[in-house]
Amino acid sequence: MRSSLTFEVSDPTAFVLALAPAEGIPVSVESLRVTIDGDPVETRPASDGHGTRLALFETVPGILQLDYAATVVGRAAPVAVEPVDAIVYLRPSRYVQSDVLTSFARDTFPGRDGAALVRAVADWVHDRLDYRAEATSPTGGAVETLELGAGVCRDYAHLTAALLRALDVPARLVSVYAPQLEPMDLHAVVEALVEGRWVAVDSTRLAPRAAMVRIATGRDATDTAFETNTLADVTLLSMAVAANADETFTDDPDALVELS
């Protein structure tokens, strides 16, 4: 898997990257190269919740180039369910406004629970939304996506998570590398707490869940962003992502699948 990003930096800026597979995923080879106008920039490792691996650095103005590559061999064990998960991931958050959607969710999905409820929500979001890149907004959340009826993977995930939390199903966002994804990019899916385990829910149905590799996990896109910068604004000039697997995967939307 590879990620290549180019930014224009106009003022001194601090960056946080989340491009590496999460802790516990068997990575055999990986590299991260960061340069500003061709000069190398030193990065520092850090970790966030749920084993998210971060790279921190500061840079002067110029053209910033980021190149990350990794090879994953095998699968990680399913993530454990922590005692606080059912508390944290039932709360509304910045982009997952479950409190605003509670009445709507209860009216739309009566008489279901457990895996059947999660499947019904995923089916409904898949059928309700149109996948359109021009419809997404960096500041829009689940409520805005529902009103617009369109978006990209992060919007599908925010709406899915909001409806599930509104129905008392803990749900969280996960950024992943997704082999067979079309169009290829970093991808966002939901994990829902079902039958005592975190199962992957992808309402876009654009990639097989069994092939996905976890990067970052959190409440919403605030916690799972691939890049965060402070001190100054930056301009993303280009971004290319590649994720390939040695085998072809299929996906049954009704199956309960755990991320590696």
Automatic annotation (TrEMBL):
<dbReference type="InterPro" id="IPR002931">
    <property type="entry name" value="Transglutaminase-like"/>
</dbReference>
<feature type="domain" description="Transglutaminase-like">
    <location>
        <begin position="145"/>
        <end position="205"/>
    </location>
</feature>
<dbReference type="Pfam" id="PF01841">
    <property type="entry name" value="Transglut_core"/>
</dbReference>
<protein>
    <submittedName>
        <fullName>Transglutaminase family protein</fullName>
    </submittedName>
</protein>
<dbReference type="InterPro" id="IPR038765">
    <property type="entry name" value="Papain-like_cys_pep_sf"/>
</dbReference>
